[in-house]
Amino acid sequence: MNRILHIRKRNGLSQQQAADLMHISRKNYGRVERGEVLPSSRFLLRFSKAMNVGIDEILFADLSRPVPACSPDEEKILSLYRMLDRSGREYIYQELLTESTYSKAKEGS
After folding, report:
1. At 31, phi and psi to the nearest 5?
2. Residue-wise pLDDT tens digits, 37-88
3. Cβ atoms of 3 and 57 closer than 8 Å
4. Which of 26, 86, 94, 95 has the fewest CB atoms lying closer than 10 Å?
5. How far is 26 from 86, CA to CA, in rounded Å?
6. How much is the CA Rg of the chain, to the nearest whole Å?
7. What value, to the nearest 5°, has the Cα angle with vertex 25 and ends 100 and 57?
8. Closest Cα partner for 7 from 51, 49, 42, 69?
9. Model confidence at 107, in pLDDT bands (50, 70, 90)?
10. Alpha carbon distance 69, 88 (integer Å)
């Protein structure tokens, strides 16, 4: 399993959800995740921001390296998110996507 796939799954996202957060197509996202193409610097920056990880964590090839632990609050949020059914996850995802779009629009002002 590569780092991009590992990080996406750790965040409980589908390929489509990750691609949407990064504003790219699922097809292009999947090609990078499967190793068919190398990630561009733009992809790495978007993925880093969407997944809230450093680029060094994405590029580090040794999966045995410990991943920085989440804070107790972050662990609780992830635990609660994982307990949601599909419609609950979709609702949260849409809210985050809307907030992300709103933040980008505000930054551009």
Report:
1. -65, -40
2. 999 989 999 999 899 888 878 887 555 555 556 677 877 877 787 788 878 8
3. yes
4. 86
5. 19
6. 14
7. 65
8. 51
9. low
10. 25
Check: CATH 1.10.10.10 for 1-68? no
DSSP assignment of 25-65: -HHHHHHHHTTSSPPPHHHHHHHHHHHT--HHHHH---TTS
Which amino acid belongs to residue 107? E
Token pair, residue 79, equals 């635990």
pTM tops 0.85, yes or no? no
**Per-residue tokens: 23:** 């504003």
- Nearest CA among 39, 14, 16 for reference residue 26: 16
Tokens linked to 25: 């197509």
Q: Closest Cα partner for 2 from 27, 37, 50, 26? A: 37
**For the chain, what's the residue count?**
109
Phi, psi of 24 (to 5 degrees): -135, 170
pLDDT digits (tens, 9 = 90+) for 9-40: 989 999 999 999 999 999 999 999 998 999 99
